[in-house]
Design brief:
This protein is α+β, with helices and mostly antiparallel strands and 235 residues long. Helices cover 23% and strands 29% of the residues. The chain is built from four helices and eleven strands, in the order αβαββαββαββββββ. A hairpin with a 4-residue loop joins strand 8 and strand 9.
Length: 235
């Protein structure tokens, strides 16, 4: 099966799953924007560092550019009550004609290069902001390898991989009011900020706790070990 047929088959399975769960009737539209949240309440704020890794060379710039394109698409996105956010629908297939550049990705064999590399930091930031806001997480996937080890930019259990036609990030707005997603890359501070805003403050507090339950030894010499991690949300 070639790559196009593989993507088509995977997308068909995702579409069927969304239809059976009723999500496809409530997907957020990419053009539904709410630029002004000056009178709204901040309900979650998730900043992350953007690390310039020397071993990536010029891919560092490609990664940054891809994150900026993704921020342009997601910033000010309005998520209506009971609506479902999907990276597949908002970001889509990262292609050069969409402004995406080659960047680093984590593949089964380890670090690789692909157009759109770096988008996983976008999906990770959105996942954590949605988790902190108390949204319903409908789909999320951890990376298949922990290639950075102790140099990872977030603790185990906080990441959310994005691979078009394979791994999506979906969450639902469970509140009676709309939410607005704000995204920004700050090149000067080398940081990414993801926020969710609401017309009214939410009457709850959220605590996220990650616990490493088990370390799985590498299957071969110089291989990558694995982990079993429990992520808990206390509201």
């Amino acid at each position: 099966m070639n790559d196009l047929n593989y993507k088509a088959a995977r997308l068909a399975l995702h579409a069927l799953r969304s239809f059976l769960n009723g999500w496809s009737f409530h997907l957020v539209h990419p053009d539904d924007k709410q630029p002004d949240v000056s009178n709204w309440a901040l309900i979650s704020d998730f900043p992350t560092e953007i690390r310039q890794r020397p071993e990536l060379g010029l891919q560092n710039e490609g990664r940054l550019a891809n994150m900026e394109v993704a921020c342009h698409r997601t910033d000010c996105l309005r998520i209506k009550s009971q609506a479902v956010f999907s990276m597949f629908r908002i970001i889509g297939d990262p292609r050069p004609d969409q402004g995406f550049q080659p960047g680093p990705v984590i593949a089964a064999k380890g670090r690789d290069t692909a157009v759109g590399g770096g988008l996983c930091q976008i999906s990770t930031a959105i996942f954590n902001a949605a988790l902190l806001a108390g949204c319903d997480i409908l789909e999320q996937h951890n990376h298949s390898k922990d290639i950075w080890g102790e140099g990872r930019f977030l603790p185990l259990g906080k990441d959310a991989a994005y691979v078009f036609a394979r791994w999506d990030l979906k969450f639902r707005n469970p509140f009676s009011s709309d939410l607005v997603l704000r995204m920004r890359v700050d090149r000067k501070r080398m940081s990414l900020k993801c926020q969710l805003w609401s017309p009214a403050a939410q009457p709850s507090q959220v605590l996220i706790r990650h616990t490493t339950l088990e370390e799985i030894p590498a299957l071969q010499a110089n291989g990558t070990k694995g982990w079993v991690v429990l992520t808990e949300r206390i509201v």
